Amino acid sequence: MPELPEVETVRRGLAPTMEGATLAELELRRGDLRFPFPADLQALVRGRRIVSLSRRAKYLLIDLDDGMTLIAHLGMSGSFRIAEGADEHLPGEFHHPRTKDEKHDHVIFHLQGGAGRSRVIYNDPRRFGFMDIARRAELSSHPSFRDLGPEPTGNSLSAAYLADRFAGKTQPLKGALLDQRNIAGLGNIYVCEALWRSHISPLRAAGSLVTKKGAAKPELELLVRSIRDVIDDAIAAGGSSLRDHIQTDGSLGYFQHSFSVYDRESLACGTPGCGGTVARIVQAGRSSFYCASCQK
Fold first, then answer.
1. CA angle, corner 214, sides to 212 and 220, nearest 5?
2. How many CB atoms sit inside 10 A of residue 121's CB?
3. E-only strand ranges, the chain
4. Strand partners, 118
5. Which pLDDT tens digit goes with each residue over 115-141?
6. Span 59-91, pLDDT tens digits
7. Among all residues, which ones are annotated catalytic?
8. CATH fold of 4-141
9. Staple 196 to which of 110, 153, 182, 261, CB 3.0 to 4.6 Å?
């Protein structure tokens, strides 16, 4: 599933085409994705100007000029591509082949902007993505957002905040970090990478990073910095582009070539002087990659 850096990469790729354009028509080629489309979705967005594109956790938010927001989630295999006239912009060589089979083009945004007409096409072979619409002022109470924790890139995420959330918890740290109620948008790949950078085992109890008085230990301070750094690095590199994800212009992000532990089972640990080997274990049905020699 595309993680936060991938969704942020998509947002930045779509913004130049979509922001300021009028949504002349939203073409729905089927009645549902993971969930049915809202019955009045097409009528609500027809003729509205797109004010801005933003992101919350792994959700893309398309803000309209009447205060409504179109919510899009990419699911497992969703992607956008931009087309102008008959030319679809999908340059680049692909590490993982992408389908352009039109039977998977389920939603098409027909746009009218300063440069003329264009289309933004949503393709989703597995149909695990979804789209919804809500008032921007009411997003905090929307079912997709009401229980989300702070963004991993914002000032709200701090060691003190996590200390309060983790105090007394025997839950493995990996699971606590993946809990979207604790941190919004942090996924499996970047949790593995942040824990490696912090030299902390995914098997540690979350509460072990908190003192008896409820304060953050230095390890938790380092973990917060590592989370910020690994997300920033991935966004700067254009997202990991694993499996089905591509940038909106069709090219791949390359952070996947900089992974230190994720998907590197049996390879040497990159920590200077460690000498250990990356191992793979399964926690709550998810693969965890870590080095038992330097992650304690």
1. 100
2. 19
3. 22-28, 48-56, 59-64, 68-73, 79-84, 87-89, 105-113, 116-123, 130-135, 278-283, 286-291
4. 111
5. 789 999 999 999 999 999 999 999 999
6. 999 999 999 999 999 998 888 888 876 545 432
7. 2-3, 58, 286
8. N-terminal domain of MutM-like DNA repair proteins (3.20.190)
9. 261
